[in-house]
Amino acid sequence: MEAGNNLLLGVTGGIAAYKSVELARLFRKAGLNVRVVMTDAATRFVTPMTFQAITGEAVRVDLFDPMHEAAMGHIELARWADHFLIAPASADFLARMANGLADDLLSTLCLVSTAPVSVAPAMNVNMWKHAATRKNIELLADRGVRILGPAVGEQACGDSGPGRMPEAAEIVSALMYSSAEGVFGGKKVMLTAGPTREAVDPVRFISNRSSGRMGFALAEAFAREGAEVVLVSGPVSLDTPPGVERIDVVSAQQMHDAVFDNLSGVDLFVGCAAVADYRPEHPSGQKIKKNANRMELSLVRNPDILAEVAALDNGPFTFGFAAETGALEENAKAKLVGKGLHMIAANLVGEGLGFDVEENALQVLWPGGETKLPMQDKKSLARALVGIVAQQYSNHLHQQGGSV
Asked: Is 272 known to be catalytic?
C-alpha cells in the first residue's frame, strides 16, 4: 500500500457483508488503523457493534449524525483516510458512485475523499453481467477506482458465476502486497488463459483440457507486482484474482476480438490460453441427430492471436506458451522465431502433465538465452516466471532506448 496506515472501510448492503468483519480483523492484524462506514442497508446484515468490537473505533452510518456533524465529521473522516475500500460494493452503490450521487454518508465520502479508492463488487451473476453494471464498472475504472474481483462461484441465491466478493485474505493480499512500487508498477499487462470452445452444434463443441490455472496464477503474480492486469479468459471454474479485470469469452474468435478491443495501452501481452487452432466451418444451428454411421466435420483455421499481437508495429512485449507432447525445446524455439515473440515458456502435456493439474515445470526461452523452472505448484511457478519476464522486459526497454 502507499504511505499511511489509515484505512476507511465502506460496507454496503448484501449478504457478503459478513466477510467484511474478517476483512477488518485482518487489516487490523496487519497493523492498519481501520474505521468503518456502513450504509443503512448494510446494518440489516451485520451490526455496527460487531465492527466496533473488531476495530476499536466508532462505526458511522448516518450522514446527519449530530454528535459528529457539528464539527463537519464527514470531512474530517475523509481527510483521515489514507486508503478507501468499499467491500462489499453492491450494484446499487456502484451505480451511485458512477453517477456521483451523495445521498448518504458513504457516497458523500466517495466524493470528498482524495485517498485511492478500491471496490470489491458483490452481487448476483446476472446483475454483474447487466450492461448497466458493466458500464458503471468501466466508468469507475476509467476514473482510477481499483476493481477487486468479483470472484466466480456459487452464490447465496443458488446461482453460479461471477459476482461473489473475493475472500477477505485475497483482498488484503491484493491491497497490502501489490502497489505501484512493484516491478511492474505503472505497466498494463494483458493475459489470455484457459481453453476455448468451438461449437459443432448448440450442445457440442471442440475444446481441450486446459484448466486456466497457470494463466490465472500469472495474472495474480503480475498484479502483486503492481501491474494493471486485464485477463481474457475462456470457460473455466476459477475465481478472479484480486485486483484483476476479467473478460470472459468462449470461442477463439471471441477471445481474438476481446484482445484487440482492449489492447490499447498494453505494455506486455501474455498468451497463456490454449486457443483452438481450428473450428467447425459450418456449425449446425440445430442438434445433429445420430442418423448415419459416419459424420464428416470440415474445420477451418482460427486466427492466431499471439502471432497477430507480436506482428503489430510498436506492439507490446509479447510472451507466449507452447504445450508440447514431445521435442519440447525444438518446437518451442520454432514457435519463438516463427511468431516473432520476445519470450516463450514451454511445457510437456499429456496424461498427468501440464493440463488440469496443480503443478507444472517450464522451459523458458528468449533470443540468445533460456532457463528451466522445476516442477512446483503453479502459483510458485508463476511468481518465478514473472521475475524472469521482468528481467527480459527490462532488457527489452534498455535495447529500445539504445536504438533511439
From this structure: no
